[in-house]
């Protein structure tokens, strides 16, 4: 069984946990400024609209975080077709990664 479905009893609860998951890891940052992840993505049924999520974490030189597109967002707008994630150390862009279909 998928660990993300643990505790989901009804079909509705299982449906709300379906989606796309992205795991981001980093190391070698200064550790003195907060770390921010900016996740931009397009979904199947949302057309060319770009959705954006920003996660700000405490000051750390290494870490990991999971980004998820689940629940109503996933059920209404569908599968993630293209994405880009950017990692900031304070206000400095440190790394960027994107899918093949991202423009």
Provide a compact summary of the structure.
With 103 residues, the protein is mostly beta strands. Helix content is 13%, strand content 50%.
Description:
It is a single chain. With 103 residues, the chain is mainly beta. Helices cover 13% and strands 50% of the residues. It contains two helices and six strands. The strands form two sheets. Strands 3-2-5-6 form a four-stranded antiparallel sheet, with no helix packed on it. A two-stranded antiparallel ribbon has the order 1-4. The longest helix has 7 residues, at 71-77. It is globular, with a radius of gyration of 15 Å.
Count of helical stretches: 2
Q: What's the overall geometry? A: globular
Named CATH topology: Immunoglobulin-like
Question: Which percent bin holds the helix content?
Answer: 10-25%
Write the layout of secondary structure elements.
Blueprint: H1 11-16, E1 19-26, E2 34-43, E3 51-59, E4 63-70, H2 71-77, E5 80-89, E6 92-98
Antiparallel strand pairs: 1-4, 2-3, 2-5, 5-6
Tag the structure with descriptive keywords.
mainly beta, Immunoglobulin-like, 2 helices, 4-stranded antiparallel beta sheet, 6 strands, single chain, two-stranded antiparallel sheet, globular, about 100 residues
């Amino acid at each position: 069984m998928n660990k993300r479905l643990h505790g989901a009893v009804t079909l509705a609860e299982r449906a709300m946990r379906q989606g796309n998951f992205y795991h981001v890891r980093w190391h070698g940052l200064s550790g003195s400024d907060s770390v921010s992840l900016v996740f931009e993505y397009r979904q199947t049924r949302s057309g060319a609209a770009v959705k954006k999520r920003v996660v700000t974490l405490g000051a750390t030189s290494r870490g990991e975080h999971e980004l998820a597109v689940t629940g109503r967002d996933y059920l209404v707008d569908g599968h993630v077709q293209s994405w880009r994630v950017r990692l900031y150390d304070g206000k400095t862009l440190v790394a960027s990664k994107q899918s093949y279909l991202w423009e």
